[in-house]
Amino acid sequence: MLHTVTTSPFHTQSLQSCLRYISQDDEILLLQDAVFAGLRENIWSKTIKVSGVKIYLLKEDLLARGIADKVDECFEVVDYTGFVSLSVQHEAQMKWE
């Protein structure tokens, strides 16, 4: 299953809830303000690392927020084409707002 999270983990509990319900075969795509979780040296990047699931960040949202060069190396950055590929790969999807 592909989980998409759109809100900042510093303002909502969406990412926290998502991490609580994911399975090891799931993947997470962080969009919009959720990409702030991918910043180096923050509590969320550390929490995500230990979750054991693959995490993606949308490049365009990182660029729009001026943080593309501050992302932890454990995350994979994808563009819109990568976003579409992930959506095609995962029949089941869950959006967390």
From TrEMBL:
<dbReference type="Pfam" id="PF04077">
    <property type="entry name" value="DsrH"/>
</dbReference>
<keyword id="KW-0808">Transferase</keyword>
<dbReference type="InterPro" id="IPR027396">
    <property type="entry name" value="DsrEFH-like"/>
</dbReference>
<dbReference type="GO" id="GO:0002143">
    <property type="term" value="P:tRNA wobble position uridine thiolation"/>
</dbReference>
<dbReference type="InterPro" id="IPR007215">
    <property type="entry name" value="Sulphur_relay_TusB/DsrH"/>
</dbReference>
<dbReference type="GO" id="GO:1990228">
    <property type="term" value="C:sulfurtransferase complex"/>
</dbReference>
<dbReference type="GO" id="GO:0016740">
    <property type="term" value="F:transferase activity"/>
</dbReference>
<protein>
    <submittedName>
        <fullName>Sulfurtransferase complex subunit TusB</fullName>
    </submittedName>
</protein>
